[in-house]
């Protein structure tokens, strides 16, 4: 985030990577999502920035290089961008957490590398992290968001047409910054883990059979946790 570049490391297929290649873009990039936005079987990039109120789409040529960015304005800087097919049209869409607002933006993809005018969905204050999940196992993708200043995690249940139910929120310890999702207690229900930057803790929200996340556990960890993952 201290430069105007992103770095690409091409894999050899054996767990090793070539030296990084720098791609010059703009204004302190902070989040990158990878997917095929124009259905040409080549990976494209969507980039959000710490100092610029827009996202950029960089269409890939399939050789590690990219076309000149296509720019889409938003009302705020964004520290997280994700790609998924939210409207089940076999074209990737883009969701953006608009940091200085109480909104996330969802751009529908047309399958040719271009994006629609975004829909706005109200979050709590300062959304900083998004993750794509199917919480209710209905094959319609949902979103979970970390609302930094509000000290909440919000869940948006997807309708499968690019729209979402109103946010359902759950309180966590102070200032959630990153999230992950998995079944932590082997009950076949997804749980949510939030890295809470303000109190050097993680908060676990356990999924209930009714789809809620009422039960929670707070666990102290090291100073200023900025990321969290689940593994065996």
From TrEMBL:
InterPro entries: FG-GAP, Integrin_alpha_N. The keyword Nucleus does not apply. Keywords: Signal. SUPFAM superfamilies: Integrin alpha N-terminal domain (SSF69318). It comes from Adineta ricciae. It comes from the Eukaryota. This is VCBS repeat-containing protein.
């Amino acid at each position: 985030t201290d430069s105007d570049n992103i770095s690409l490391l091409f894999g050899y297929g054996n767990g090793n990577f070539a030296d990084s290649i720098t791609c010059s873009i703009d204004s302190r990039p902070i989040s990158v999502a990878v997917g095929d936005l124009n259905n040409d079987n080549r990976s494209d990039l969507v980039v959000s920035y710490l100092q610029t109120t827009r996202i950029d789409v960089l269409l890939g040529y399939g050789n590690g290089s990219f076309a000149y960015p296509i720019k889409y304005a938003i009302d705020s800087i964004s520290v997280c961008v994700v790609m998924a097919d939210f409207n089940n049209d076999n074209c990737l869409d883009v969701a953006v957490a608009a940091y200085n607002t109480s909104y996330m933006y969802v751009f529908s993809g047309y399958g040719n590398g271009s994006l629609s005018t975004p829909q706005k969905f109200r979050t709590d204050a300062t959304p900083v992290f998004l993750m794509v999940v199917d919480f209710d196992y209905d094959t319609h993708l949902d979103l979970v968001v970390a609302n930094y200043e509000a000290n909440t995690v919000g869940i948006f249940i997807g309708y499968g047409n690019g729209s979402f139910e109103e946010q359902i929120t759950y309180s966590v310890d102070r200032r959630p910054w990153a999230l992950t999702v998995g079944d932590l207690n082997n009950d076949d229900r997804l749980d949510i883990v939030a890295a809470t930057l303000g109190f050097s803790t993680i908060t676990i929200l356990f999924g209930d059979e009714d789809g809620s996340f009422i039960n929670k556990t707070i666990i102290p960890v090291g100073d200023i946790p900025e990321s969290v993952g689940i593994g065996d």
